[in-house]
Amino acid sequence: MLTLSKQILVAIDGSPQSDKAAEEAVRLASISGSKFKSRVFAVLVLPNMKSSSFTDFFPAKPPTEMPDWQKKRDRLFYVVEKVAAKADVALESLVVYGDPAEELILVAEEKECDVIVIGSSGKGRMKRTLLGSVSTKVALHAHCSVYIVR
User: Fold this and answer.
1) SS3 label, residue 141
2) pTM of the prediction?
3) Are 102 and 135 in contact (CB under 8 A)?
4) Does domain 7-48+81-149 have CATH number 3.30.70.260?
5) Domain residue spans of the chain
6) Distance CA 95, CA 12 (A)
7) Do the beta carbons of residue 26 and residue 147 sit within 8 Å?
8) Which residues contact 90 (CB under 8 A, 6 or more apart)?
9) Structure confidence by residue, pLDDT tens digits, 24-46
10) Strand order in the sheet with 7-12
C-alpha cells in the first residue's frame, strides 16, 4: 500500500529515462505524506574496475577519485536531489561498482527496499534480446516490486 512509509531505490545513470524514474520515485515517496516518511535511495552503478596485474605499472584510478568527479556526480544526481529537496523527501545518494542489475538488487536487499524504480532502456526488441536489459534483469530477479518508467 502506498500510503505507508516506503524504502524506494531509484537507479541513476544520467539518462533522460533515469531522470524520469527519479521524479517518479520522489513522487511515490511524497504520497506517504508527513506522518509516514518514505526514503529514496538514488543509486549510480559504475562499471567494475579491472583488476590490476603485474603489467599494470600505472593502474587507472576509479572515476570517483578523478579530479572532475564532483562535477560529474553533481550533474548525475542533479534531478533527483532537486526534486527530493522540493518535495521534502529524505534522499541518500550511493555510488557502487559492478554489474548494474546485480548491484541494484543487492543494494535494494541491503536497504530493505519495498520498490525499485528504474527507467526503461528504450532499446528495440532485437537489441534487448541480444544484449539484455538492466530493467528486465532487475524485474526478473529482484526480491521486491519493480516499477519500470517509460
Assistant:
1) helix
2) 0.84
3) no
4) no
5) 7-48+81-149
6) 9
7) no
8) 29, 37, 38, 39, 40, 84
9) 999 999 986 666 789 999 999 99
10) 90-97, 39-46, 7-12, 115-119, 145-149
